[in-house]
Amino acid sequence: MMLDLFDGQDPNIIAPPVTLHPNFLTQRQQQLLLNEVSDYPLTKIEIEVFGKKHLIPRTQAWFGDDGCDCKYSKTLINPLPWPPMLAKLRQTLINRCQLNFNAVLVNHYKDGHDCMGWHSDDEPEIIAGSAIASITLGACRDFVVRHKASQQKVTYTPFSGDLIIMAPGMQQTWQHALPKRLSITQPRVNFTFRLITPDFYRR
Ligand SMILES: O=C(O)CCC(=O)C(=O)O
């Protein structure tokens, strides 16, 4: 089943190019992935904001095909090779959604103090106009999208095992964030699958 929150709504509301697919993963698939995540080399990297260095409020790891590097706050990150369950998840997405992905950012939020601020996934290495697939495991947190021009916001609440697809073009007109939710004590893991231009930073 696919949920479109905007069916039958006021036509003045801009519908975000987002679809939520509940129960995309079975309980068993979720457990196998969570077991694997406990072996990932998740790190808290340092970023520079307005000239000041900060540690990000979460841990993360970058996996992908060879040459699918990403840049995070001026730091070039080479992809780690695909672990077995993550490789299966990528293949499942490709088969079931007919979308292509060659890299994934894994974010681990230890509790509701960990978060991600407003941003778009519009880095130059990401193939313009490609979709982004986002899978949630663990705690249910608010995933908020904001239209860049109108500032209109919409909140999605993906549960463990749910899939969100951000459609091609969304990153150019919308931002997204995972705000702090201090009452949440459970961890959450998120996988955002992306399509990267191979060797973008190696030319
Ligand atoms: O954890 C989330 O749902 C958001 C992740 C995200 O925004 C990203 O990886 O760009």
Automatic annotation (TrEMBL):
It comes from the Bacteria. InterPro entries: AlkB-like, AlkB-like_sf, ALKBH2, Oxoglu/Fe-dep_dioxygenase_dom. Substrate binds at F50, G51, K52, D122. GO terms for molecular function: broad specificity oxidative DNA demethylase activity; cytosine C-5 DNA demethylase activity; ferrous iron binding. 2-oxoglutarate binds at N107, Y109, H119, H176, R188, T192, R194. Residues 100-197 form the Fe2OG dioxygenase domain. Gene3D superfamilies: Alpha-ketoglutarate-dependent dioxygenase AlkB-like. This is Alpha-ketoglutarate-dependent dioxygenase AlkB. It comes from Shewanella holmiensis.
